[in-house]
Task: inverse folding
């Protein structure tokens, strides 16, 4: 993507918290993300593995509390770096951290593209397609987009980069990523294997980015910004 076009994308992300549907990766190319080489195929509908996963969703649905469902619903809506704002502390204000906001907008563009490739390749039915009686947080996602979980991919991609920026907060950040992914089950939006695949794919995306020289340059600028704002330690 040309830099002037990237700037327009980033401004849109910062303003709305969403990545435009036509956003393309900035740093990495499709050769990094051949879904069949990164992820195993999900179980097919009706298989013993898929039935066991569906049974888990029913158990969660029966035992989740209203508060747990409300938190999962909030995470369903927060599909960007703001999902980690609480664990990063009160100074993590993206309106005052333009370099950090731009960095994570780029992470989002990359992971979203990688997840879309994998979802299109595997075409796993969403749980509510298999069992319409499930009470989900939403049901407007494409029906064959369950594997991998996009939220989990985003959560672990963001968390891996954030943990590298703030090693002293790494444990808390990664616990938040795990909670964020588990809430996809509380929402009945995904199966267990979907969120595990999201963890793998998100980590792969972040690791590749952290080894990219251009991304690393922007990473270093964001780190200095976070230090100056007293969000992280020097």
Result:
């Amino acid at each position: 993507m040309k830099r002037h076009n990237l700037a327009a994308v980033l401004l849109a992300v910062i303003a709305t918290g969403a990545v435009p549907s036509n956003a393309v990766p900035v740093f990495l190319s499709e050769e990094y993300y051949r879904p069949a080489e990164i992820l195993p195929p999900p179980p097919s509908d009706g298989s013993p593995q898929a039935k066991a996963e569906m049974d888990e969703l029913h158990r969660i649905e029966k035992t989740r509390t209203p508060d747990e469902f409300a938190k999962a619903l909030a995470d369903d809506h927060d599909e960007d770096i703001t999902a980690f704002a609480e664990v990063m502390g009160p100074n993590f204000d993206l309106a005052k951290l333009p370099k950090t906001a731009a960095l994570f907008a780029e992470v989002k563009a990359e992971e979203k593209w990688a997840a879309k490739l994998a979802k299109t390749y595997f075409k796993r039915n969403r749980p509510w397609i298999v069992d319409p009686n499930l009470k989900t947080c939403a049901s407007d996602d494409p029906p064959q987009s369950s594997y991998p979980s996009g939220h989990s991919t985003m959560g672990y991609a963001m968390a891996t980069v954030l943990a590298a920026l703030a090693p002293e907060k790494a444990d808390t950040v990664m616990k938040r990523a795990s909670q964020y992914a588990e809430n996809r089950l509380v929402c009945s939006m995904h199966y267990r294997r979907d969120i595990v695949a999201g963890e793998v794919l998100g980590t792969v995306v972040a690791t590749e980015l952290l080894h990219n020289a251009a991304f690393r340059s922007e990473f270093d600028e964001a780190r200095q910004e976070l230090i100056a704002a007293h969000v992280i330690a020097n």
